[in-house]
Amino acid sequence: MEITKSKYRSICDDKGKLTFLESGGGKDIPFAIQRVYYIYEVLPGERRGFHAHKKLEQYLICIAGSCTILLDDGSEMKHVTLNDPSEGLYIGPGTWREMYNFSPEAVLLVLASEHYDENDYIRDYDRFLAYLKEDNK
Ligand code: T46
Questions:
Q1: Which of 2, 40, 119, 128 is deepest in the core (most CB within 10 A)?
Q2: pTM of this prediction?
Q3: What is the set of active-site residues?
Q4: Which CATH number belongs to the domain containing residue 93 in this structure?
Q5: What is the pLDDT of residues 89-119, one digit of tens each?
């Protein structure tokens, strides 16, 4: 499984740092951003996610603190630590994800290609494996 991490342009001057990203053809985010959400104040030891998406594409940016993302494509698992606000992790359809190891100050920002749709979620691991074998991906 290939891990796609992007580094965004940042301006660092005597006032501090500013990172920016743009969506659209040839830009930082290849899809039109339809939704933005963020996860924060995660309790110590808490693990989130435990699902895959059928269609949704997302970029995850840990804009404060750190957290780790487990990615599983049904044949391989990878763990990616996010601790740089100028870096985004791409997660495409058909990838099981879990998020854990949140530092107390962590804020995980997510840029999503679609509006919220519970029908796009696969929240059962066996169903996820079966889904990968189907032709309807
Ligand atoms: C994902 C990972 C990285 C909404 O009503 N609207 C939304 O846009 C979202 C994201 C969630 N919700 C509701 C659905 C649940 O009742 O908020 C509740 C918590 O969502 P969930 O348990 O799915 O949260 P996570 O942290 O497990 O997963 C989230 C995203 O849902 C998911 O798409 O890829 O972050």
A1: 128
A2: 0.96
A3: 51
A4: 2.60.120.10
A5: 999 999 999 999 999 999 999 999 999 999 9
SS3 at position 48: strand
121-122/48-53 β-pairing: antiparallel
Q: Are strands 9-13 and 67-72 parallel, antiparallel or unpaired?
A: unpaired
> How far is residue 33's CA from residue 57's CA, in Å, rounded to a whole number?
10
Residues with CB under 6 A from ligand 1: 35, 37, 39, 48-49, 58, 97, 99, 110, 116
For ligand 1, atom 5, the nearest C-alpha belongs to 116
pLDDT digits (tens, 9 = 90+) for 19-49: 999 998 789 999 999 999 999 999 999 999 9
Q: What is the DSSP secondary structure assignment for residue 43, as one 8-state letter?
A: P
Does residue 135 have a pLDDT over 80? Answer: no
133's tokens = 């074998």
Tokens 């997510």 belong to residue: 110
Range of the domain at 34: 3-135
Beta-bridge partner residues of 110: 37, 60
Closest CA to 101 of 75, 65, 60: 65
